[in-house]
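Q: What would this chain look like folded?
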Amino acid sequence: MNGELAAITAMAAHGSRWLATPGTQPPPELLEANSCFRYVRLLNVDVGRPGILGPGRTAHGTADWLVALRRGGADRLVLVSRPPMPGAPPLQVTSAFANGGSWGLLATGDAAALWTIAWTVGDRNAPDSRVWDLAATSGPAHGWQPAVPAADAARSTLLAALDEIGRFAEDAGLGEWSEWFTRAQALLDDEEPVAPYHGDILPEQSPLQLRQLAAAAVQAWVFGGMGSWNDVWLEDQVARTSHERLSRALYDAILTALTAAAGHQSPSRDDGLN
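A: My prediction, written as structure tokens:
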């Protein structure tokens, strides 16, 4: 699973639940215990933008960031993704590189803004392996709509993408990959879904349907560098074209699933799972 995507999904899920929960419950500090931030040393957030806290303010860590967002009037964090630029490499390929993803966090409410996170290597020799330093900055939210897909629609989209790419992998003689996709499909019906990584990407109180979506999405992520699904080479041009088309469909379906899983985290209102 892409670490940058896992971290921003966890921030959307845990952050949205806290923002929607009234009372004095402390905000989650994901850098301390969440596996999605396992290799992160620090997170600095420029929250001094007009309309949030005023000039000269930097938040440190997810808890401080969430407090700033709540004070500014934010009520939700939605995982969003930009479309690819014309002529650019496929997003499922660029996402294998640091800062190569297309995703961001859309804060809604009075503090509406689009947040992005830049990853840089801090201490590459850190004894605890926390080598990454993160910097979050915001920009205008104009043109961005907080579209959170219904969970059942996201499930159907992911299931269809997995079914099609799994059959393609089987027909192409890529049995090890077809088994990978089959495991992801099975998680969509598992009464106790356990993802191979990042089992805490969602809050533990999340409904079963959302935990199934997140676990299947994590299992379905096959995009990386050498040895990954991106590295598969097929001699036949038609097969290569199908590989790229189905890969993009799966990439989009995974993002849709994660957006739905992270976006329906309000415990205080009917959030439209279906």
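Residues 79 and 259 are 5 Å apart (CA to CA).
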